[in-house]
Amino acid sequence: MNKTVFLTGGAGRIGKYVLRKLLDRGCRVKVLVHKTAPEGIASDHLEIIQGDILDRDTFANAVQGCHFVCHLAAVFDLGSEVETDSENVYLFDHLIRGTYNVLEAARQAGTVDLFAYASSDAVFSAIYKQHDKPITEEIELTPRSGRFYAMAKATMENMCVNYYKTYGLPY
Fold first, then answer.
1. CA–CA separation, 13 vs 72, rounded Å?
2. Beta bridge mates, 24
3. β-bridge mates for residue 32, sequence order
4. pLDDT value, residue 100
5. End-to-end alpha carbon distance in the chain
6. What is the DSSP track for 84-100?
């Protein structure tokens, strides 16, 4: 496979796995890293882009010429319900604004054949309620009240749908 992939979150738990698989399949991968590069992964087909999803200027040029964008970068809240404005602003910026920046870079590149976004079972309140059937894309998004992370992930899914409907960006 001679395709080029732009990957966010490539140094994260899931991102490192995806990065290895992409390289194993012969993809050229441009991985956006915020603080640290993925450990233990080296390849002639790997390009590390130091940047931040909040600053589109640090990575927009790297998306040019990419066939696929795989957006895995995220922050999350594991504790109790987020109750402070500063926590919500942090989550908003890194989840929603960051996803907007990656979507915009992909749209403006004009070469992206597929935008893959990693959501979360939090959009279905899966940890809090039992589902009788497997969760599919047809199930209504029902993020739990008070969970800003879940609400943001549901919003990001809708952003991807709307970028497809508005701009034809396949996801």
1. 10
2. none
3. 8, 49
4. 97
5. 20
6. SHHHHHHHIIIIIIHHH
Per residue, the 3-state secondary structure of 119-136, as one string, reads CCHHHHCCCCCCCCCCCC
Each residue's pLDDT tens digit, 79-104: 555 556 677 788 888 889 999 999 99
pTM of the model: 0.86
Count of all residues that appear for the chain in the document: 171
Of 156, 18, 163, 6, residue with least CA distance to 93: 156
Residues 6+ apart with CB under 8 A from 25: 1
For β-strands 46-50 and 28-33, DSSP reports them as parallel
Return d(Cα 141, Cα 138) in angstroms, integer. 9
Mean pLDDT, rounded, of the chain: 85
